[in-house]
TrEMBL record:
<dbReference type="GO" id="GO:0000155">
    <property type="term" value="F:phosphorelay sensor kinase activity"/>
</dbReference>
<dbReference type="InterPro" id="IPR011104">
    <property type="entry name" value="Hpr_kin/Pase_C"/>
</dbReference>
<keyword id="KW-0808">Transferase</keyword>
<dbReference type="GO" id="GO:0005524">
    <property type="term" value="F:ATP binding"/>
</dbReference>
<dbReference type="InterPro" id="IPR027417">
    <property type="entry name" value="P-loop_NTPase"/>
</dbReference>
<feature type="domain" description="HPr kinase/phosphorylase C-terminal">
    <location>
        <begin position="13"/>
        <end position="84"/>
    </location>
</feature>
<dbReference type="Pfam" id="PF07475">
    <property type="entry name" value="Hpr_kinase_C"/>
</dbReference>
<keyword id="KW-0418">Kinase</keyword>
<protein>
    <submittedName>
        <fullName>Serine kinase</fullName>
    </submittedName>
</protein>
<dbReference type="GO" id="GO:0006109">
    <property type="term" value="P:regulation of carbohydrate metabolic process"/>
</dbReference>
Length: 143
């Protein structure tokens, strides 16, 4: 659905896990593409790496692959890899931050196109980051 009606969002990645979008945000170099690769390895499907197109559909925010980079993911120090893509309703925002709380009281909220979506901040330097992201999706993500 790239093009009219879609709002481009740069410097984010998104993976569909069992039909639910995990939108990954963070500073440049924080590990967004690495988490994306790990989620792909765990059975996810790429929506977009380093950018997605967002649209409101049926009252939900849906992430679509951006036309100019659809199906491409950067593997640092290796190059670009071509993978299948899909669109997905955004169920959760995972924000990679070195100052993430160790034991938060619950999910925060991100506003995407004026719609609230649960947000969980995760410490990026974890060998089990993909597991934490999946747990956050299951515990806090929209259905």
């Amino acid at each position: 659905m790239s093009g009219s009606g879609a709002t481009p969002l740069a410097n984010v990645s998104c993976v569909a896990m069992r039909g639910r979008g995990v939108l990954i945000t963070g500073d440049p170099g924080s590990g967004k593409s690495s988490l994306t690769l790990a989620l792909l390895d765990r059975g996810g499907t790429l929506v977009g790496d380093d950018g997605v197109d967002l649209a409101i559909e049926g009252g939900r925010v849906v992430a679509h692959p951006p036309e100019h980079t659809a199906g491409l993911i950067e593997i640092r120090n290796v190059g670009l890899l071509e993978v299948p893509v899909t669109s997905a309703p955004v169920a959760i925002v995972i924000h990679l931050a070195h100052d993430a709380e160790r034991l938060p009281l619950g999910a925060g909220e991100a506003s995407l196109l004026g719609i609230g979506v649960p947000q969980v901040d995760l410490y990026p330097d974890s060998p089990v980051l993909a597991l934490r992201a999946e747990a956050a999706l299951e515990i806090h993500g929209l259905g």
